[in-house]
Write a structure and sequence with these properties.
Residues 1-16 form the signal peptide. Pfam families: Gal_mutarotas_2, Glyco_hydro_31_2nd, Glyco_hydro_31_3rd. The chain is of the alpha+beta class. The protein has 3 domains: 2-257, Immunoglobulin-like; 340-565, Alpha-Beta Barrel (TIM Barrel), CATH 3.20.20.80; 662-880, Golgi alpha-mannosidase II (Immunoglobulin-like). 18% of the residues lie in helices and 28% in strands. Strand 16, helix 3 and strand 17 (299-302) form a beta-alpha-beta unit. The longest helix has 17 residues, at 574-590. The termini are far apart. The structure holds 2-acetamido-2-deoxy-beta-D-glucopyranose (NAG) (10 copies). One 2-acetamido-2-deoxy-beta-D-glucopyranose binds next to loops.
Length: 883
């Protein structure tokens, strides 16, 4: 494993050509049982040593784990090659009782050279056909042939098309801070799972590998259509998932990486943030202005502005002093609102006491020679916490516990974790991160301290500028670093097409060490996962019974089990408004990270009134609904324009009506991974080939089809009375216009909805649904108040006059709620029955119900008159409903 280190550059072109000369492997010593198969793979000829050295001896492990899940792993016989530590992502191993004769997936192979194929038993179709195995010290390749123009989804994070391009496409995965979300480059997260659709049937392929990689999809005359994995290390650890419905693949994937974390009820309220709120007074003003504008603000956020010179775990003593922060938190909590602060992972060297403590305990990532690695971050020179160190948990949890202490610190309600790709502003080779920070003006000079602040009605009268000192928090823990390795981390021979042309741009360098002999070369894509896990545990240590709410920027496969995510630094563009729909379908339905949101109205650049209005309407159908802007962008709180305020009021009221419906849908996904949150159309209609290309419509929960306006406003000076028409696709199914109740028969073609104003968005209810709406949702100022409102049922019968729906109720916040109800609604031609389990006692009633589609003319109201019910939700009942 030591050749070719100094040949970079000159050798690259020549080397690339010789990939074709690699000999492949022969299989021998094959042992098969009912439910597994193992073999030895040995290099079948002369080494090619293209990107490092060929490994002579590999092992193959095949496990029929369940009837729908086949595990295939190719790894080095010595087991020295890096593998994802099970402490970070524990994927299932062992056979779990399926067998080669009962599995839906059939494994077959050739020995000389070794190739393998995966077939679907029921159709005999070959789903994966692996050839071209190369296994070198710094490069692993495997290719599968595919049918022409395959329908492939997943493999993110990305800003590319929803359905993957099938020719000349490279998807690099190497977590990377990438403002403006450039297409065809690495973005913040890595999720190496894809779903492929063939003739209405779906299957999934997950490669559990955290190394940087390129996944190429191409069609050439020589090789036909294929998908090819090119990783810079790790092993080939595949989970094949048989579907056959897309929703089955989602559940099967959850069976590998875990089901998503349940979120508290309040997290579905509306959130506001901006980078550039200059002091706690300005933050308070935003809270106040939202309330004056009658727009229900649920949670207020503060970006790194609150830190003293951008140093994590500090407060700016003049602009965000502790006692004012505490008053703000008290105010918010008294009004049933929440507060969240951003936390970055590195410790500033200028934060001398905390830095010394962490350094002494050995908690930082290190150079090979044992010196602490120093990056340049928002605070200037800073060292990243090494979360592999077993003492990092104590340290991190201690920081969370003391800094966010409800009595003596800032009692936040969740954590926003950023820069965890991890990011580094010091360009390689960075000899002096301190100097780079000084030259780069980092941290920037803080804004002038205000000398007079107007008092805000409702806030303490002395909500006035302070003069006192900041508070620093101390820490405890121990740590150690060991290990060397023979690979060329600094100049790897194969470099994924990240967009930078190198792996050391904008991040902690690949040669930097982590505890237990890990190097960032292998663990880079897991840095965020570790920060997420430690933050979640820290939040649990602090408030043990409450569901921890975390929003991260970077992530890896499986992190949805612990965190939510926002899609990072998008821009205030129409293209990014549309892109959010694609990203949310990917994260929610394919990557199992359904608490997903995009900065509403856009982060970078200045938004416009009409874009922000459309985005306020779209954002209400995001699982995580937050308006956020950059420091260099104009203010864009919803109350800044009357048109946007009106859009937001309607959007939030509608979201509130549907909040328990969505809470129920989200809960279902946390139980078994069912894709019930943001759902692509082809998941719902797998046999309708037209749905395979639909990128900008989605289901919000199983019954609500959202079809946002997809064309940019024609006029920059539009007013609330202006409108546009929207063209949308309706599958062959019965729908109802959510707003008018009118029946709309889908025929598998496009329809046009006219007069979609800036305070409107086309929404349809799928026939066959019963939806429990919170009544008077427009009168609730927070989700806490909403939870006291009664319900009313919206009934959308199918063509047989039948409909069903469900409602999950619990206390909305406990990690393991002691009481919950799973209530089923069944409607059959006017007869409604309510049954289920009723563990959660509530005084909320179902006060009334109405049926959709009693008229099919647009001009008249399509709803039936209300049937008054006034029935409780603590036991089953039946009722007759007027139609
Ligand atoms: C599998 O791939 C090989 C090329 O590697 C090709 O010759 C063969 O036809 C493929 N088989 C199927 C069933 O796709
Ligand atoms: C796809 O194949 C073409 C033709 O061989 C080649 O020029 C191109 O580089 C390939 N693209 C990728 C992403 O591999
Ligand atoms: C709050 O509203 C007042 C009155 O419209 C305005 O002057 C002020 O700039 C607003 N402040 C913020 C931070 O939105
Ligand atoms: C919402 O209304 C309730 C009840 O009137 C009140 O206690 C609470 O402070 C209000 N919250 C906000 C954010 O206005
Ligand atoms: C941080 O510390 C370095 C080294 O001691 C020093 O040069 C730099 O001026 C400090 N920066 C700030 C903002 O205090
Ligand atoms: C360790 O290596 C780094 C990077 O090459 C270098 O900056 C640092 O000075 C070295 N430390 C020691 C103690 O040699
Ligand atoms: C680190 O661990 C190694 C082996 O476990 C040990 O020899 C060494 O003394 C430790 N170093 C520190 C600084 O604790
Ligand atoms: C946003 O608009 C302001 C003026 O309203 C301007 O100063 C600023 O440069 C603009 N920002 C961007 C990113 O275009
Ligand atoms: C509720 O009623 C429906 C329809 O009668 C039935 O399918 C379902 O099993 C019932 N559920 C419970 C929990 O009783
Ligand atoms: C009710 C309404 O606003 N109708 C308008 C819908 O759009 C068409 C074409 O733009 C107008 O002619 C209607 O007046």
């Amino acid at each position: 494993m030591r050749g070719g280190y100094f040949l970079l550059g000159l050798a690259t072109a020549a080397a690339a050509a010789s990939v074709d000369s690699c000999p492949g492997y022969n299989a021998g010593a094959i042992l098969s049982s009912r439910s597994s198969l193992t073999a030895d793979l040995s290099l079948a000829g002369d080494v090619c040593n293209v990107y490092g050295d060929d490994l002579d001896n590999l092992r193959l492990l095949v496990e029929y784990q369940t009837d729908s899940r086949l595990h295939v792993k190719i790894y080095d016989a010595d087991e020295q090659v890096y593998q994802i530590p099970s402490s970070v992502l524990e994927t299932p191993s062992g056979q779990h009782g399926s067998s080669s004769s009962s599995s839906d997936l059939v494994f077959s192979y050739t020995t000389n050279p070794f190739t393998f194929a995966i077939q679907r038993r029921s159709t005999q179709e070959t789903l994966f056909n692996a050839s071209g195995l190369i296994f070198e010290s710094q490069y692993v390749r495997l290719r599968t042939s595919l049918p022409e123009n395959p329908n492939i989804y997943g493999l993110g994070e990305d800003s590319d098309s929803f359905k993957r391009q099938t020719v000349d496409y490279t998807r690099p995965l190497w977590n990377r801070g990438a403002a403006f979300l450039p297409p065809l480059q690495s973005l913040y997260s890595s999720h190496p799972i894809y779903i492929e659709m063939r003739d209405g049937q779906a299957h999934g392929v997950f490669l559990s590998n955290s190394n940087g990689m390129d996944i190429k999809i191409n069609k050439t005359t020589q090789d036909g259509q294929y998908l090819e994995y090119n990783t810079i290390g790790g092993v080939l650890d595949f989970y094949f998932l048989s579907g056959p419905a897309p929703a089955d693949v989602a559940r099967q994937y959850a069976g590998v990486v875990g089901t998503p974390a349940e979120q508290s009820y309040w997290t579905y309220g509306f959130h506001q943030c901006k980078y550039g709120y200059e002091d706690v007074m300005m933050v308070a003003e935003v809270v106040y202005n939202y309330s004056q504008a009658n727009i229900p603000l649920e949670t207020m956020w503060t970006d790194i502005d609150y830190m003293d010179l951008r140093r994590p775990w500090t407060l700016d003593p003049e602009r965000f002093p502790l006692h004012k922060m505490q008053e703000l938190v008290t105010y918010l909590h008294d009004h049933q609102q929440q507060y969240i602060l951003m936390v970055d992972p590195p410790i500033s060297i200028n934060d001398t006491s905390l830095y010394a403590t962490a350094k002494e305990k050995g908690l930082f990532m290190k150079w090979d020679n044992g010196s602490d690695f120093v990056a340049t971050m928002w605070s200037g020179a800073a060292s990243y916490v090494d979360f592999f160190n077993p003492n990092a948990m104590d340290f991190w949890s201690g920081q969370i516990g003391s800094f966010f202490d409800d009595e003596s610190g800032v009692g936040v309600d969740g954590m926003w974790i950023d820069m965890n790709e991890p990011a580094n502003f010091c360009t390689y080779p960075c000899s002096n991160p301190i100097q780079i920070a000084i030259e780069g003006g980092i941290p920037p000079a803080p804004p002038a301290v205000r000398t007079t602040w107007d008092s805000l009605p409702g806030f303490p009268a002395d909500f006035q500028p302070p003069s006192t000192s900041s508070r620093r928090l101390s820490t405890r823990s121990t740590g150690n670093m060991t290990g060397l390795s023979g690979r060329n981390f600094a100049n790897p021979p194969y470099i994924p097409a990240t967009g930078d042309g190198t792996l050391n741009a904008g991040t902690v360098y690949p040669e930097v060490r982590q505890y237990d002999d890990y190097t960032m070369y292998d663990t880079h894509n897991l840095y965020a996962s570790q920060m997420i896990a430690h933050s979640r545990q820290g939040l649990l240590d602090r408030r043990s019974s409450e569901r921890p709410f975390i929003i991260t920027r970077s992530s890896f496969a499986g992190d949805g089990a612990k965190t939510g995510k926002w899609t990072g630094d998008n821009a205030s563009t129409w293209a990014n408004y549309l892109l959010s729909i694609v990203q949310h379908m990917e994260f929610a339905s394919i990557f199992q990270m359904p608490m997903i949101g995009t900065d509403v109205c856009g982060f970078n650049d200045n938004t416009t009134e009409t874009l922000c209005a459309r985005w306020a309407m779209l954002g209400a159908w995001y699982p995580f609904y937050r308006n956020h802007a950059d420091i260099s962008s104009n203010f864009q709180e919803f109350y800044r324009w009357p048109l946007v305020a009106a859009a937001a009021q309607k959007a939030i009221a509608t979201r509130f009506q549907l909040l328990d419906y969505f809470y129920t849908a989200f809960h279902q996904q946390t139980v078994d991974g069912s894709p019930t949150t943001i759902i692509p159309l082809f998941f719902q209609y797998p046999n309708d080939a037209n749905t395979l290309d639909i990128s900008y419509q989605f289901f919000f929960g199983p019954s609500i089809l959202v079809s946002p306006v997809t064309e940019e406003s024609p006029s920059a000076t539009a007013t609330a009375t202006d409108s546009q028409s929207a063209t949308l696709y309706l599958p062959d199914d019965l729908f109802y216009d959510f707003w008018t109740g009118e029946k709309v028969v889908g025929t598998g073609s496009q329809i046009t909805v006219d007069n979609v104003t800036y305070t409107d968005i086309p929404v349809h209810v799928r026939g066959g649904s019963v939806i429990a709406l919170r009544s008077d949702a427009d009168k609730a100022n927070t989700t806490a108040q909403l939870r006291t409102h009664d319900f009313e049922l919206l009934i959308a019968p199918d063509t047989n006059g039948q409909a069903t729906g469900s409602l999950y109720l619990d206390d909305g916040k406990s990690v393991n709620p002691s009481f919950s109800s799973e209530i089923g609604f069944t409607f059959d031609n006017g007869q409604l029955s309510v049954n289920g389990t009723f563990g959660f006692q509530t005084s909320c009633q179902v006060i009334r119900a109405r049926v959709m589609g009693t008229s099919s003319t647009k001009s008249s109201n399509g709803f039936s008159s209300y049937t008054t019910l006034k029935k409780g939700l603590n036991e089953g009942w039946e009722a007759k409903i007027n139609q």
